[in-house]
Amino acid sequence: MSVVGVDLGGTKILARVVDPATGRTVGRKKVPTPKDGTDAVMSAVAELVRDVTASVADGTAKGVSAEDAAEAVTAVGVGVPGLVEADGTVSRCPNIPGWDQPVAVKTILEADLGLPVVVSNDVNCGAVAEHRLGAGRGTDDLLAVFVGTGVGGGLIINNQLVVGERGMAGEIGHLTVVSDGRICGCGERGHLESYAGRAGIEREARRLHAAGRPNALVELAGESPIKSRHLEQALAAGDEVAHQLVDDAVMALAIGIGNVATLLDLSRVVVGGGVADKLGRPFLEQIMGSPDFGGFGPQVCTLELAQHLDDAGVLGAALLAADLIEN
Ligand SMILES: [Zn+2]
Known about the structure:
2 domains; 5-stranded mixed sheet; Nucleotidyltransferase, domain 5; binds zinc ion; single chain; alpha/beta
C-alpha cells in the first residue's frame, strides 16, 4: 500500500507518494500555488496528486523500484495552513490568496480523485510526523511546538491527534503569557506568539529601532523580513536588542510549554520550526533552564529538537491518509 501526502502552502504545493510503514518517500513533485482563487488551488492539488502517482506507477520517479511501482495509492492526506472543520471543510486559510470563504476540501478532492481524503491543519500534520517518525517516537503523549513566523502546536494524547471542538486544540501560540502584553497577530494581547514568533520579534525589533534603539536585526534585514538567520547572526555579534528579544521568546515559551506539560503530565515536548532549527540546542536549553518554566518545571519534561523541517507537513499528511485505510 502507498499513500499520497500533500502540503498545501501559501507559495507552493508539495506532494509525495509515501510508504506509510516506513515513511520512505517513493516519489515527489511540487507546483507553485495558484493565485487566482480556490477553484484553481483545488484543481492544482488534484492534478499534482495524479502526476506524482503516475510518476511512480510508470517508473519515471527517481529511484522507484518495480515493487514501488506496483503498489496502488489508496488514500490522500492534505495538510493546509488553516482552520479545518470535522467534515474536512477549511473555513479560514489566510496565507492562501483568494481563500475568502469556507472550501469543502475533502468533498471536492474525493469527488475529483475517487480516493478517500483526509484534511488536517499543517501544524497538526507536523506533530504527527514528529510523533511517529521523528523526535517524539516512543511516547504516547506529545506536544509539538513549531516556532517560525508564528508559533503553532499540535497535541497527541494516547497516540491520537487531538483536534478539539473547533479544530484549535494544541494552538499554544495563542496562550496568554503576559497580562496586557504585546499585541498578537490575532488582535489579542500578551499571546506567546507575539513574543516567540518571528513576526512578533520583528515588530518589536522595528519598534525599538524607530524609538532610538538601533539593532543588528533591522540593520541585517533592511527592508526585507527578518529571517531566522538574521536572528542567529545578531546573537553571535552580541547585539543587545537581539539578546533581549530572544530572552523574551524564551520566557514566553518556558511559561507556555511548562504549563501545558504540567496540565497534561507530558514527559516530552518536541520543538521545531525555522527559529528553533537555527538557534538549535542552546535555545532549548535556555527554555528548560528558564526560571519562568511553568508548572512543575523542566524536571518532569524534556524538550527535544524536531527532526523534520520542511517535510514534516507532507509526511504527517501521508501518515494520516494511511490511518484512513487502517482504521
Ligand atoms: Zn494571538
